Structure formats: structure tokens, C-alpha cells
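Technical note accompanying the year-one report. For the benefit of new consortium partners, we illustrate the data format agreed upon in the data management plan: each record pairs a sequence with a C-alpha cell string. No post-processing was applied to the example shown here.
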Amino acid sequence: MQITVWRAWAISMLAWMVPSAYARQADLDSIATQQVSVIKDYGLKPYVHVSKDLPYAETNTWKLVCTMPYNCQFQPWIKLESPPGQTIKFNSSNPLVQYLTRTEDYTTQEGDQTCEAKHWISGEGAIYTIPAGVTVQAVQYRETGYNTTLAGSFECNDNDYNILWQKAARTAYLCMREWFFDCPDRERVGFWGDGTPELNQCFYVFDAQAHRLAKNLVLRKLEPGFYPGQHLEFLGKYGLWFYYLQTGDLESIRAVYDQTKTFLLKTYTSGNPRTWFDWGKEVKDTAVTEACFLYIDLQTLKKMALATGHTADVAGIDARLDSIKNTFDSTYWKGGYYQSSQVTTPDDRANAMAVNAGLADGSKWDAIFNNVLTKKTYSSCFFDRWVFEALCTMGKQDYALLRMYERYKTMIPCSFTTLWEHYDRWWASRIDAFDEGSSLNHGWNPPAIVLSQTIAGVSPEEPGWVKYHVLPKEAFLTAIKVVVPSIKGNITVDMKKTASQYSMSLTSPAGTTAIVGIPRGSFTTLNSIKVNDVTIWDGAFRGGVNGITWHGEEAGYVKFNVAPGTWNFAGLGIVPIASPAPKPLPPPASKDMALDKKSWTASASVADGTFPFSGGKIPVDISAANALDGDHWTGWRDLTKTQYPGQWFQVDMQQAQTFDKIVLDNTWALWDSPDKYAVSVSQDGTNWGEPIATGAGQLGMTTITFPVQTARYLRIMQTGTNATYHWSIYELDVVRRNQ
């Protein structure tokens, strides 16, 4: 009930926010003339799955459900034969799309014809509603999107992190069009908070075409009344200075200097109730978090002043910096963590930011790690980026990767190709409950930037990548290959570890100097370092390779200055190889065959129906047939009451089939897994033997295996009880495994 009320409030807010955001964006440098040229048309494409074999018609109104290979921005297209005056409807299978884009109608003419939707929508599937007597001959979709290409990459020996990087890249792309927005379905608002990680990721994931959107965000006029805390997240090293280091675009920094200075020194007031920093849990230590971001921003403002010739401002900025630094510990340090009087327990967000800001010195890191960062998970998937980075700064990269896995563990194996607004689809702000209205493609997710920049350790030190470093924090990973598409050219790093050698190959573009560090922490004993098979260090720098000079030993690394070219480093010694991570998902190489279900029928212990979706009260079909249509956005739900013994879902496969696995996908309704189940099969739909499998549901995806069966009917019976959640099946696959 409370969530529905919040969604109703959110819809009313959109009436103000969306037009305002659009109008602001129109003020950007020549954005009006860019709106056509920046959009790429990928042309008409075939769907990867169509729920009916075409051509097809029925004597009643029916639905054709079609799926794409990934979440994208698209327009459905159809070829059909029809009498005149019939109404065809197009929409995404993602119900959130209806918040912004109404279902499109097309009125038919006599005979053969084609039609394409006029407006783009997003999702991984399309639904066509077809009247009786209309024959669908063919369907396709037109993919469009921001005109950039995937230029960066990240691969490692643990496929869980590969999947996270790939889903993060797909998510970032879906949140780009004429500007960076929070999600492509429900809002499309240009929040500064969402824009910060989107700007960050575009430099590690996409080609230089994406830099235009980053520049637009940098040049955007600040709006102090529009979530001012998000401004703080953007105006420091994570937004403005990040952009400058990546591009060397001093003119844009000069252009925004005055508005940045005015906002930080005059406009922003601490304690504003609209100073939003994170969704996350309500234990929000805003006072500490705010002080940290102000400190980071003022450090950046000082660097901007020096870079743009505003040296007269430095003294005033230094005074503000000193006022924060000199009182921070005495105000907030409680002996083992930072905490203000606003909260009764320490906040992981606030303590992480104290590390990131440099306000927490190294003597406090162990206490913060042990007392807070290993104990609290109040952060949302937006703010966890800063927790991951703080852990890596503290030398706790093993735990950073483990925390990332633990927090994303329902997103990694799921069938969705993007990352979600909330961990576990769980509303974590004010209300602890499943949030059906949260986006399943939300731009604030950080894995791509954290893995490429922090874990692989590739980051600029001077504007425009004139100087950059390669300082891996690979933790328990034994192989990483990353490509970073810098403005100087692609930087490729290929790291591998064995028990006796730490190898790193670097291809560095012209016009750069790389600082390459071999991490001492990856060794129990480091004996020597070679470059291109020449020993250059054996406890002291020996030289001997043109293009390699000594940089020093600091922060746990043995460092060298490296000229452009291709270089092969090898650290020799004793390298511990052990992983505390769960066994990673295998690469997608299975030969298991999901049976064709286009002709199958489904029934359930409750009648087919609809439910009013989220705050918009959008009627969404939850008929049993939806569990067989090939689309994990559409599904069957029993909303008559919560889970109880005796609920059942049944499939008629129309003829005897041989199979030994069933997969129940309810990721969309993540918490609606069956509490306990029993699976039975039948030849006639009347006589059922003893269950062939029993067990408990798994969060999101429930995989049920059993000895090989040959049967026409199968039934899943609910044998457990759950007083909170209903039972849903958003897609059911019957599989014949490769024996």
C-alpha cells in the first residue's frame, strides 16, 4: 500500500520534473541541432523469438509476443493481411514503459500492408495485440540508440564479473539518447546523480562519440533546487574533474568555473532536507556524507581555479577546506567509526566517503573496515560504487569484489540483460519491501567503471591521458584483460598470475607516459621484475631497457615510467593463488535444449486475470499463457492470496516430450519463488504419479532437475506457505539436457 502511494506521488512529480529536464537540456550547446545526428538507426531486425509460427491468425483477439537479444530502444514493425478498420496495438512487454509512452494503435486498410510504431520504446520484448481475422505475416523491430559504439572491454577469469561488466555496459547504453537519463522506461530525467556514473562509464565503455553527452552534462546550468546533494556528487572528482582528466577540455572547465564556485561557496547550504545523496536504507548519515562531498568539491574547485587562472580564489577555498578538515574528526569520529547525531548506528556510505575524501587517515581504516564496511549494507547500487572504491583505497580489494558479488548476486544469473534500480528489487528507502515499479535498467549502476578503472587499475593522472597509471587491484582474480578507449588511443592491459609469476602486457598509445606498478601485495615474496625478458629490478632499479625509467616504490607498488609501445612485464617470486569467491558462473556454452513451446497451453489453480501495476494502476495481464510466451517480462501470477499448499500450475505440451529439467523464471517478481514445490507428470492430464522432484524455490530463478521423463503433461504444485509473497512464474522452460 505504501509503495503504491509513493508511486502515485512519483507520477505527479514527473509532471514537473520531466518537462523541466527536457527544457534544461535544450539549453545546452547546439543540442537542438544534434538531436537527429546523434541517434543511430540500426535498421529493421528479426526478433530472436516469436511466440507463434508465422503466418498466423486466430478467430479471437490474441497476443503475439516477440523478444530481442537484449534490452534496447526500438520500434515494433509488422506486415499483415487484414480487412479494413481493425485496430493493431504495439507496446513493449516492459510495463514501466506505459508510464511515459502509451500503447500505439494502427487502424488497418484492406489487404496486405506494413506498419511501424512512430515512437521508440525500450525493453527486451514487444507485444502486438491482434484482432480476430487479421493474419500476421511477419514482424521485425527497428533498433535505434545513441550513435556510439562499444569500444572498451573487460574480461577476467571469474565469469561473474564479466557478466556484470557486460550488463553494466548495456545498461549505460540504454540510458543514453539526447542526454544521460536515469532509465529509458519510467522517467528519462536527467538527474545529476545518475549522470555521474553514466559520464564515468562512457569513457571506459564507448568511443569518443559518447563524450558529447558528457560535455553536455558538464556544461549544464546548475539548478540548486533540483536535488542539490546530487550536484555535490557531480561537482568534484567524480564529475567535473573526472571529465577534465579524461578529455583535457579546459574550455568547458573554464566555462563552468563561475557557476561551480557560486554554488559551492554561496548557494549550497548544509542541512537542506532536499539534499538527496542516496536511496538506500534510511540510516543515512547525511551530515558526514555532506561534509565529505563538500570537501571533495572544494579540492576540485581549487584545482579548477589554478587551471583556469583564478588564483585569487585559492585562499578563500583553502580556508573552507581547512574549516572542514580541522573539525571533522572532533565532530564525527567516535573511536571506531564516523557518525553524526542524525543516526544511531554508523552508515557505510558516510564512512566510505570519509576514506574517499581523504578525511579518514590510514590509521582509522582498519576500524572503519571492521566496524562498518564489513557490517553494514545500507548503500543502494548507486552509492555502493563509493563503498567499493573506498575498500580498494584501503587495500581491501578482495572484500570489494566479494561485496560486489554478494550485492549483485541476483542480477548476475538472471535472464535480464541490464542492471536494476534496486538490489533484489527491494525498496530500501523508508519501506522494506519488494518494489514492482522499480526499473530493471537503471543508469546509476557502477560495475563497469569500478572493474575497468579501479580493479584493472587504469586511470589518467594528468588531463587528456598525457600521463596515466596502471596500478591493478586484482585481488583474487588471476587474469584480467581490459581495453580502455582513451582519447590518445586504446590502452590494453593483459594481466595473468601463476604461483611464481605476475605477468602484465601493456600496449600504450603515442603521446602518453604510463606509470606501471607491480603490486607487492600480490606476492608473498617478490624477487625480480623483467621487461621484455630483461631484468630491470631485483631489489633495486637496474635499468637496461630504453623507454623504461624508475618511478619509485610507493603505496605498495614498484613503479616505472613507461614510454608508448608494447611492453611485457613479469614479476618473479611467490604469488599466492587462492579465491574466497563462490564458484563463478560458467561461460554460456551449454548445449542443453529448451523445448519448443509455441503450441503448448497452460492452466492454473486460479482463473486468468490482470493486476493494477504500481502507482499508475496500469492493468497488466497475468494469464497462465504468459509463462510460455518466451518473454521474462510477462508472466503468470496468483494474486488471489499469498502462497498456500495446493496451488498448481500445469502445462499441456500437446504430445509426449522427453525432458529432465524445468526452469522457473520469476525474476520480474523476484520474491515470488515457490516456498516449496512438487513436480508431477502425466500422460493424460488426469492420472498423476508420485512427484518426480520436490524442493524449495530459489530467489528469482528456480532450476529443477530429475531423472529423464517422457510425458505430455507436467504440473508444479505449491506445497509450502509464504504469508508475505504470492506465487509467480514469468517464464517456464522445459529442458532436455545434453547427457
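Partners are asked to follow this layout when depositing records. The two ends are 48 Å apart (CA to CA).
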